[in-house]
Each structure stands twice: as structure tokens, then as C-alpha cells.
Amino acid sequence: MAEEFHTIGRSVVHFLQHHCTYYIFTPPMKNSRNFSEIPAAVAMIPRTAFWFFTVLILFASRNSFPVHHLLQDNDADDGELRDDIPEINSDLNAKGVILRAFEGFHLKSCVHFKPYDGEKSYVIFQKFQGCWSVTGDKKRGQNLSIGDGCDHKAIVTHEILHALGFYHEQTRTDRDDYVEIQWDHVLPAQEYNFKKHGTKTVTDLNTPYDYESIMHYGPFSFGKNSSLATITTKMPEFNIIIGQRLDFSITDLDRLNRMYNCTRSLTLLDQCDFESNEICGLVQEPVGDAGWMHKKSSPKGQDHTYIQQCE
Q1: Which of 252, 231, 253 is nearest to 242 (CA)?
Q2: Helix 10-17 to helix 92-108 angle, to the nearest 10 degrees?
Q3: Which residues are catalytic?
Q4: Which of 16, 79, 166, 183 has the smallest C-beta neighbourhood within 10 Å, fewest atoms?
Q5: Could you report the average pLDDT of every consecutive run of 10 residues in the chain (311 residues)?
């Protein structure tokens, strides 16, 4: 059963050209198992080895691997490594998506990925059934599954965060202050996915509950049907926000960099998407009374230069 790991940099390009290169990854210390929104089946489907990767912590005050908050455990132990760090399949799209996910960590944190070179802890990206990963460092090779339908950058980012020690947001100790679990709407035998963890298992790293987290379940996750919400937010306006699979939230990045003691400052683009009315705090010298204006769109031919006069 061949296995491969995935990394960022030139060696990643090498992987795309040479199928059986191995990489390793060193995540935080945690033995809990954790499934994503698409869980693995008991029986694994045949897979092809992709990449092995090791995690490098750069620009950090110390190379520690603290444990973050987790969402769910799988208490079943059938002797098979079903929740380990995933192996990546030979599908070019999946490989490209994984590389893009690595780039996101590289640009926005001090967590980097390198090819496996005999390290004790590493991540194997594989194509099993479903999207899933173990949570934290198993101190050995771990599988991370990018199965059919999982080859999206945000989903891969979500699974890598599990491997790095993140649990799902709605399993925080204080989650009942922010969301309600509609137990009657949850699929039979899937209740464990909504298990709440205690402070001895997880830590929020002194960050607030984050409805926008890429680690938060959506309102209909593991529901009996698509019209019955399994999670509702105490602030109704966030019901359409939870479960976003676009990118890291600001708090996700804050936690990641706190967890790995990253000391490198983030760039403006890492922290700002220019969607706020404050235009990310940008200030302009008053020249001809011109000022900044936040617009969702503009008529054809306009670039919004000096579009608004300062009040």
C-alpha cells in the first residue's frame, strides 16, 4: 500500500511529475480521531499513494505543537487507521488543490510543508472514502483522506487544520452560548459528531467563538434531510454564515499563529479583504478633498478614482 505526502515549494512540483515521492508533516500532539463533514466508511476503498509531507515551523518563538480545540472523536477502534493524515490520489486536480492549500498556510502563518525525509511524524495524503483527518500529532505516519468530491482548497485546508490540532468550532466547551444542536434532526448514529469537549481536551487559545471559522459545521451537517437544520445560531443572522468553506477566518489565523507561536507579522493582504467599510484602516492625504469609498461594484469604465468627496 504505497503512500505519498504533499509539501510546498519546488519539491511539490517534483511530486506532480514523479508519482511516488514521500513527504512528512509534524502536527501537534493529540490522539483523538476527527472526521469532517464527509465521514469515512468502515471499509476503505482502494487508493493510490500520493505524497508524504513534514511540517516546518518557521519564524516561531519555539517549535511547540500545542493542541487546539476539537470537534468530534470516533470511539470505534477496528484496527484500521481511518482518521490519519490523508494520502493524496493521483488526480491532478486534487494535487493542485493540495498545493494551493499549502500555499495558504505558507503565506498566512509560519507553518510550512516539506517533503518527507525520514521524520518520525508525517502526514500521508490519500484517496480514501470521504474527507477526514486525525486531529493532532500521532507521532508516526498519519493518513489524511481527500476522497471523491473533496478536492476543494477550503476542504483540504479544513482537514490540514485537523492534523495541526484543530477541532470543529461547535465542539468548544462554551458552544451552547452560541449555537443550539437540534438533536432530533441528526442522523442516527451520527450524534458523536456534535459531542462537546471539555477544557481538558481543547483550548480556544483565548479567542472568541467564531461563526465564520472554516472549522465550523454548516446548519444542515449530518441532518436527516436537507430541510432540517442540525445547528442553529443564537444570533439568527449567522445561520447563513456557519459552515463557510471559502478560506481561513481572521480568528482561524489568529489561533493558528498562537498555537504555533508564530512571530512573523502578517501582511496586509493576510488580514484584510477590503470588504469592511473602514477599508482596512487605510488613510489618504486630503488631495483635492478626495476620499476612499467602499463599493461592491462600479459602472463600466469607472475605476472609482476620486469618486467621492470628503465630508
Answers
A1: 231
A2: 170
A3: 159
A4: 79
A5: 33 29 33 40 38 52 30 28 37 82 91 83 87 89 89 95 95 97 97 92 91 97 95 97 96 93 62 56 55 61 48 41
Report the predicted TM-score, pTM, of the whole model to 2 decimal places. 0.64
Distance, in Å, from the CA atom of 135 to the CA atom of 132, rounded to the nearest integer, reads 10
What's the pLDDT score for residue 167?
Answer: 95
State how far the alpha carbon of 8 is from the alpha carbons of 65, 100, 199, 267, 282, in Å. Answer: 20, 9, 34, 19, 32
In order of start, what are the domains of the chain with their CATH numbers?
10-268 (3.40.390.10), 272-311 (no CATH)
SS3 content of the chain, % helix, strand, coil (to 5): 20, 15, 60
Q: Are strands 231-233 and 290-291 parallel, antiparallel or unpaired?
A: unpaired
CA 282 vs. chain centroid, Å, equals 29
Give Cβ neighbours of residue 33 (< 8 Å, ≥ 6 apart).
Answer: 73, 74, 82, 83, 134, 135
In terms of Cα–Cα distance, which of 182, 159, 196, 198 is closest to 233?
Answer: 182
Q: How many CB atoms lie within 10 A of CB 28?
A: 20
